[in-house]
Amino acid sequence: MKKSITIMFAVIALAALSLGSAAAQGQAVTIKLNEVQGSGDFGTATLTAVGPNQVRVVIQMGGTMPMEHNHPAHIHQGRCAALNPTPTFPLNPVTNGQSDTTVPVALTALLASNYAINLHESPAAITTYTACGDITALSAVGLPPTGNGAGLLLASALLLTALLLTSLGLLLSRVRAA
Predict the structure, then answer these.
(1) Is the pTM of this model over 0.90?
(2) CA-to-CA distance for 61 and 131, rounded, in angstroms?
(3) 115 closest CA partner among 61, 49, 47
């Protein structure tokens, strides 16, 4: 009897850990990148949690940007209206309207603080910004594609609590019957 109870609690604990990990990975938001200084450049940056401290940043650009050129892109501290000029996380340059980079930071850390993604005209004109977007849940385009994980985590915790209480109730009823 004690062995089956131990196995049951181990299964519940493993389920809780795997559900929490699944909620953290795959979490994503899409940020609108707006033109700066009349550049005509615009697009989106989709930030997806791919690990506990890793975010994949996929940029898709449109507008008048010469697509074949390399356009430096970075994550900076601050907001588009007042960026720290020193990049916090460099991103792969936008070439042919696209960039894909994985950076060593948690998505929740980016969303909880003041960060922005900005694009530059070229490596030679690095001080000329062409597009920028604040990284906040409020500036996200539409709803986050996979949610923020908080709802799933809460539902998982409630489900595990219900399973635990049911198991304890069954155990108590067996002990009283014996």
Answers:
(1) no
(2) 9
(3) 47
* Residues 40-94: tens digit of each pLDDT: 889 999 999 998 899 999 999 987 666 667 889 999 999 999 999 999 999 999 9
- Domains contained in the chain, CATH given: 28-143 (2.60.40)
Phi, psi of 141 (to 5 degrees): -80, 115
Amino acid at position 116, single letter: A
**Nearest to residue 80, comparing CAs of 28, 124, 39?**
39
Strand (E) or helix (H) holding 9: helix 2-24
Model confidence at 119, in pLDDT bands (50, 70, 90)? Answer: very high
In the chain, the amino acid numbered 150 is: A
Number of Cβ within 10 Å of residue 45's Cβ equals 27
Strand partners, 118: 74, 132
Largest CA-CA distance found in the chain, in angstroms, rounded: 82
